[in-house]
């Protein structure tokens, strides 16, 4: 049947991964079904991107989604696998007290960790120009509120800084140190350019670090082996699965509109049998048969 690992065990698993010295790979999932595939392929965890949640709702990534929407989607994805699920909580959806509530809501939703960023609201995609960051002290208050609200000590609170593209790499490093001092378990360094920047950050900051390998942005796409050698602890691929899926959907829809049939697309589709395998249809059928195991034959009328 479905996943059996308790949320507390998933959180311990994520925490142990951060301390293992091995790079943890978290592809992004835009649906529970994608999360199931991420687990089957053999990754370490699942990531839920705020940009992807917004895009799936037909919205740009500028802070328009609500905590309720993000928590609801996160809960659906987190419940689909036995893997830890790590979620983007943007700026915490408001003031420090809102960030504190965000932690409790996402804990209750079954997530294993979240990241909060130091952008000004309304935020924007981390790989666009024109970002603005709050003063370091304001972000420290946001993080302290989040840490104080945490009930499970293994729930990972990550601090994302967008300062490298605004104030420079040295300023981003100083912010990262301040955020770690405020209780952040993990530091997310957004929009670094290439390996040299990642190496400089790793040399300066003792806290576990997260790398964002998103496509078509400001960061060079660095392989997992190189990131591991540099000493990073987590790598996310936040929008990759959505981009692949949307490209395939667009190509297919245009062919159907042009040709009037999808028959030429069949070899590019997931087969019904493969979908049923991923959804574990036989196990559900067996479970149902074992539960519904009585017969009306011989019952007095």
Q: Would you kindly provide a written description of the structure presented here, covering whatever features stand out?
A:
With 301 residues, this protein is an alpha/beta fold. It has twelve helices and eight strands. The chain has an eight-stranded parallel sheet with strand order 1-8-7-6-5-4-3-2. Helix 8 links the parallel strand 6 and strand 7. Helix 5 packs parallel to helix 6. The longest helix is centred in the last third of the chain and has 20 residues. The radius of gyration is 21 Å and the shape is globular. It starts with 6 loop residues before the first helix and ends in a 10-residue tail after the last helix. 41% of the residues are buried. InterPro entries: ICL/PEPM, Isocitrate_lyase_ph_CS, PrpB, Pyrv/PenolPyrv_kinase-like_dom, Pyrv_kinase-like_dom_sf. Catalyzes the thermodynamically favored C-C bond cleavage of (2R,3S)-2-methylisocitrate to yield pyruvate and succinate. Keywords: Lyase, Magnesium, Metal-binding.
């Amino acid at each position: 049947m479905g996943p059996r690992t308790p949320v507390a065990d998933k959180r311990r698993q994520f925490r142990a991964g951060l301390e293992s010295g091995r790079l943890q790979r978290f592809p992004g999932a835009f649906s529970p079904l994608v999360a199931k595939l991420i687990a089957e392929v053999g990754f370490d965890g699942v990531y839920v991107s705020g940009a992807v949640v917004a895009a799936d709702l037909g919205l740009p990534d500028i802070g328009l989604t609500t905590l309720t929407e993000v928590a609801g989607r996160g809960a659906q994805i987190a419940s689909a696998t036995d893997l830890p699920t790590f979620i983007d909580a943007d700026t915490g959806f408001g003031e420090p007290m809102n960030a504190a509530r965000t932690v409790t809501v996402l804990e209750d939703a079954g997530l294993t960790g979240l990241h909060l960023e130091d952008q000004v609201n309304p935020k924007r995609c981390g790989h666009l120009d024109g970002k603005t960051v709050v003063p370091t002290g304001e972000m420290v208050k946001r993080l302290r509120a989040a840490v104080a609200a945490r009930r499970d000590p293994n729930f990972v609170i990550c601090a994302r800084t967008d300062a490298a593209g605004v104030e420079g790499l040295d300023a981003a490093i100083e912010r990262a140190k301040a955020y770690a001092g405020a209780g952040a378990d993990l530091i997310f360094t957004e929009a670094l350019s290439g390996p040299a920047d990642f190496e400089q950050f790793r040399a300066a900051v003792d806290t576990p670090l997260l790398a964002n390998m998103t496509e078509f942005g400001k960061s060079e796409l660095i392989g997992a082996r190189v990131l591991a050698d540099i000493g990073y602890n987590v790598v996310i691929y936040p929008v990759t699965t959505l981009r692949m899926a949307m490209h395939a959907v667009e190509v297919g829809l245009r062919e159907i509109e042009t040709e009037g049939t999808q028959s030429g697309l069949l070899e590019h589709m997931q087969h019904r049998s493969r979908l049923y395998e991923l959804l574990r249809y036989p196990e559900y059928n067996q479970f149902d048969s074992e539960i519904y195991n009585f017969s009306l034959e011989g019952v007095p009328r």
